[in-house]
């Protein structure tokens, strides 16, 4: 039987030296940390509420809400860096050692970064799109361009255009989803945080800072990920096109790739049952 999922009953908070982190705690068993993606009005709850009931039959599911997205404390840094730092703070604050991790899009990048820099924290890693490098497709992608347009000039029409780029089936973008996303996306502190990451100026500044500091890009360090890794991808992803999966699939030593047809960026939503089947088979194996 699917574990009962309730937003308010499962919400918890943890005070850290980087501010208050909020999270959902559902189920029993080995800890499974779920990391959400980025974009207007996103939250961990939105990303995983449709699958956490099934995952919680096997695991204690901890859905972390990253700083800067309107639920945990906002913080003043770059959202990506704050997200990476929040993982260590959260696991230490919860008294947890190595955990299994599922990361959607940016959350997958965060999980992979932690797996490279702090391998003792990651037991197994599941990613949903995002983690890779464009080899044959144009960069930035259609979805990222639409995301930047919304962040620079947030209108309801631009939000809807971006949401449609996230999916294969337009019916997935309901009025309820639009309203939910819009409400959080235009909250002033959340929008200000997004502009530190998703504007052309922010993109250029981040690239220049990384070059000046001599930072090796994540894609060049995939070979350092020792955790068994399941890469899941929508074949019809217009945010992170599927050719991006080739490099991590080849370079991560213990990587497997599962591509889901007729599916966009949100594999856990558009291909829910097939995605759950693949993920649970991976996480419960042996």
TrEMBL record:
<dbReference type="Pfam" id="PF12697">
    <property type="entry name" value="Abhydrolase_6"/>
</dbReference>
<protein>
    <submittedName>
        <fullName>Alpha/beta fold hydrolase</fullName>
    </submittedName>
</protein>
<dbReference type="InterPro" id="IPR000073">
    <property type="entry name" value="AB_hydrolase_1"/>
</dbReference>
<keyword id="KW-0378">Hydrolase</keyword>
<dbReference type="GO" id="GO:0016787">
    <property type="term" value="F:hydrolase activity"/>
</dbReference>
<dbReference type="InterPro" id="IPR029058">
    <property type="entry name" value="AB_hydrolase_fold"/>
</dbReference>
<feature type="domain" description="AB hydrolase-1">
    <location>
        <begin position="32"/>
        <end position="275"/>
    </location>
</feature>
């Amino acid at each position: 039987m699917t574990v009962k999922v309730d937003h308010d009953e499962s919400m918890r908070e943890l005070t850290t030296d980087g501010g208050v982190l909020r999270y959902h705690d559902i189920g029993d068993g080995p800890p499974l940390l779920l990391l959400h993606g980025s974009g207007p009005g996103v939250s961990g709850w939105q990303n995983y509420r449709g699958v956490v009931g099934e995952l919680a039959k096997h695991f204690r599911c901890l859905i972390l809400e990253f700083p800067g997205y309107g639920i945990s404390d906002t913080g003043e840094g770059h959202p990506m860096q704050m997200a990476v730092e929040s993982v260590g703070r959260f696991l230490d604050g919860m008294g947890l050692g190595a955990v299994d991790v599922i990361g959607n899009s940016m959350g997958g990048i965060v999980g992979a970064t932690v797996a490279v820099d702090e391998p003792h924290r990651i037991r197994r890693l599941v990613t949903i799109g995002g983690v890779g490098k464009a080899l044959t497709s144009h960069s930035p992608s259609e979805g990222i361009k639409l995301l930047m347009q919304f962040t620079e000039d947030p209108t309801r029409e631009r939000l809807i255009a971006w949401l449609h780029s996230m999916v294969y089936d337009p019916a997935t973008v309901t009025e309820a989803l639009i309203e939910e996303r819009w409400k959080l996306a235009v909250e002033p502190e959340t929008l200000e945080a997004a502009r530190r990451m998703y504007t052309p100026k922010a993109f250029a500044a981040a690239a220049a800072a990384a070059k000046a500091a001599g930072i090796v890009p994540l894609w060049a360090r995939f070979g350092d990920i020792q955790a068994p890794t399941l890469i899941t991808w929508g074949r019809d992803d217009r945010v992170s096109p599927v050719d991006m999966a080739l490099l991590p699939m080849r370079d991560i030593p213990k990587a497997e790739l599962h591509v889901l047809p007729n599916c966009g960026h949100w594999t856990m939503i558009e291909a829910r049952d097939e995605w759950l089947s693949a993920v649970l088979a991976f996480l419960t194996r042996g």
